[in-house]
Amino acid sequence: MTDVFAELDEFLDTAFEAQERMSAGDLQRRAIAADLPAEALTRIDALPEGEYAQDEAAEALRALEI
After folding, report:
1. CA distances to 1, 6, 18 from 37, in Å
2. How far apart are CA 66 and CA 60, in angstroms?
3. Distance separating alpha carbons of residues 32 and 44, to the nearest angstrom
4. Per-residue confidence at 65, pLDDT binned at 50, 70, 90?
5. 66 pLDDT exceeds 80?
6. Would you list the domain boundaries of the chain?
C-alpha cells in the first residue's frame, strides 16, 4: 500500500506544480492522462467533489477507506 501513496505523492507534486488548488474532477483527468495504476486511480476517483490544495488532497487520499 505504501507504494500507492508514494505514487500518489509524486503525482500530486506534478499536478500541483503550477496550481494552488484543483478540483477533484481536474485531479481525475490528470491522473488518467498520467496513466496511473488502477489502485491509485481508484483512490483519486473516490475523492469527494470539491477543490483541494495539495496537502488537502494528499490527506484526503490517505483517509479514504478503499
Report:
1. 12, 12, 23
2. 12
3. 10
4. confident
5. no
6. 2-63
Distance separating alpha carbons of residues 10 and 8, to the nearest angstrom: 5
CB atoms < 10 A from the CB of 6, how many?
11
Residue type, position 1, single letter: M
* Closest to 46 measured CA to CA, from 24, 16, 23: 24
For 37-64, write each residue's pLDDT tens digit: 999 999 999 999 999 999 999 999 999 8
Cell reading at 31: 491522473
Give the span between the Cα atoms of 48 and 4, in whole angstroms.
19
